[in-house]
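Structure in, sequence out. Go:
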């Protein structure tokens, strides 16, 4: 049994490098990626899916949930970092390194607040996993995944070149020690013609 940490499918905001709002939907390509992701898990027994309540995450999880008998729940803790007034703006419009640890987005989460939430996220993931009898899928966002891996997981140095958070990438965590990364940012299920973005 494993914990699968997954990033949502592509949005037009990813493609166009826009800091996204909670109601940003998947693009047509993102919907295709969500179907490919569901096919990847056809023969992997999943007992539970927990999902960010942002629309793009819900839409990515929907085909997965439809294709198996797993339980499904939304969890606001899994939301992407809140960039406040920057949401809806393109990267080019922002005259600052908004990913820097010291940057404070207007009316948004500081880096310290975000890390504190990530710690709560990991506690919630572990509790969810321990209360299920099979594997767990966690559907969330790129920055959440980066911070979870940084703060709570052990990655073999040989895997580090694979640290590329493509849309619908899968990071598999060993369900025995709940710390060791078995597969990092795997996106082999995607059509090779798929393009991905890095915007949050």
């Amino acid at each position: 049994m494993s914990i699968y940490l997954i990033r949502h499918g592509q949005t037009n905001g990813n493609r166009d490098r826009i800091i996204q709002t909670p109601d940003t939907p998947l693009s047509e390509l993102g919907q295709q990626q969500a179907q490919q992701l569901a096919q990847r898990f056809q023969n992997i027994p999943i007992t539970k899916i927990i999902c960010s309540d942002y629309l793009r995450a819900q839409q990515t999880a929907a085909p997965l949930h439809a294709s198996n008998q797993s339980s499904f729940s939304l969890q606001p803790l899994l939301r992407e970092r809140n960039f406040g007034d920057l949401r809806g703006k393109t990267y080019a419009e922002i005259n600052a390194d908004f990913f820097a640890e010291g940057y404070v987005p207007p009316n948004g989460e500081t880096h310290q607040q975000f890390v504190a939430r990530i710690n709560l996220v990991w506690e919630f993931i572990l509790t969810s996993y321990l209360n299920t009898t099979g594997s767990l899928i966690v559907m969330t966002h790129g920055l959440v995944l980066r911070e979870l891996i940084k703060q709570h997981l052990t990655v073999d140095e040989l895997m580090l070149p694979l640290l590329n958070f493509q849309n619908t990438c899968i990071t598999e965590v060993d369900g025995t020690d709940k710390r060791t990364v078995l597969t990092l940012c795997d996106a082999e299920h995607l059509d090779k013609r798929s393009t991905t973005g890095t915007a949050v």
